[in-house]
């Protein structure tokens, strides 16, 4: 692994100041993405700012009913927290469907938000990849683009899926990302945090310069709702999603009062579909309305040579999950 | 017995190599005669010869050189003061500096689980861990599991169930198994064990026997506590 300078921060302010405006600095939390990518020489930090000693390990219920999650809460701790399993089952299920036990034990909330794509052309270090080498092209378009490539939110510059399960659940729940920067704190709506690739696929998120994520705050749970995460993949465990759905639904009798739908494995960012949610509102909870919502989800989908199957698969992930949560 | 006080100017950290969490962990290891009862005679001979290995002495690197960071690692109950470069990986430090080669390097990028060990009783991939990030942590490796000549119940069960072929993934499999058997949040049914162990890849395909070994060890660890 290449050499880098190292600084251990004792506070968020100190972390931001150690990071400075050095574009080649990186914050280290669990390290499951960063150290992997440094080892294969895709990320090349000159300085690593270790934030593991910061006091960001708490999960707090706020007075307004929201839940604030510290940046360093591990994926395991978050998935098992009683408030999360009770009020946000979809988030707990999404977390437990990702990676492996020992990776979840290390991986953090902020690190999961910041994880990089799994496109093999991004990771191989030699193929054309606009994300890694702006302007070099995209080897996935016209290459092998089956499993970790999107049908929604793609551009002619990049088609890699966002790999997170946790983020799909957070997109469905609704959340804000709290960040600390040199000029203090600010909040970013979770749905605005991850960026579409567009013409600038190397810009992946809304963080500025040396901003540090300190918390992710979940919207208050929808009263009387049920939620769940359904992940479809090539093998049953320890595999990225081909298509997944996070669904939250509240019924009044058999009529849908509220619905939230987000997808993973099919989009270039955690893919919330508000239009499909609106289409469900006030409708009976049955196959026809679910099918209609699923059609809206995939209406603007663009298939590539090897991943056209993700369009029906993504629809099925939505329909089956809605069916389960309203049964 | 080996309290260490470190003052970096802004705060004081206290490390105790025999902290309550460590004692609890060792207790849960459940030393019992079961290992000897299940392991075949030749295995016991192999065990006996292995147990004569030199105990690991505490290491003290002295003053750090330029570009090095001084850290304390409490590895299998022994506190070491080591000087490491920022990019030194925990797995490599254990294997190359402390000569604890029981923890294996497989893929070296967090995909295979061969490097699994316990940090403060939690299973992690040591290949994706900077040593410097673990300053003050308690690390338990496969070398710590047996109590003298007695194999840990999970080791004995792997032996009894032939839960390996080449054996390269075995240390990681066993460390994961120990962690999940001590974790009340993980279900005891076969599906839950398979899911919890999915981060440990066995390219020989001994999964069926690994599962049998874990479930067998579960009964014995329960019986021993």
Automatic annotation (TrEMBL), chain A:
Keyword annotations of the record: FAD, Flavoprotein, Oxidoreductase
PROSITE patterns: FAD_PCMH
Keyword Nucleotide-binding annotated: no
GO molecular function, one term: FAD binding
PANTHER family: XANTHINE DEHYDROGENASE SUBUNIT C-RELATED
Domain FAD-binding PCMH-type: 1-223
Name the record gives this protein: Xanthine dehydrogenase YagS FAD-binding subunit
Organism: Kushneria sinocarnis
UniProtKB/TrEMBL annotation, chain B:
Listed Pfam families: Fer2, Fer2_2
Bilayer-crossing regions: none
UniProt keyword annotations, A-Z: 2Fe-2S, Iron, Iron-sulfur, Metal-binding, Oxidoreductase, Signal
PROSITE patterns linked to this entry: 2FE2S_FER_1, 2FE2S_FER_2, TAT
Keyword NAD: no
Residue numbers spanned by region Disordered: 1-22, 45-66
2Fe-2S ferredoxin-type domain span: 69-145
GO molecular function, one term: metal ion binding
Protein name stated in the entry: Xanthine dehydrogenase YagT iron-sulfur-binding subunit
Species this protein is from: Kushneria sinocarnis
Lineage of origin: Bacteria, Pseudomonadati, Pseudomonadota, Gammaproteobacteria, Oceanospirillales
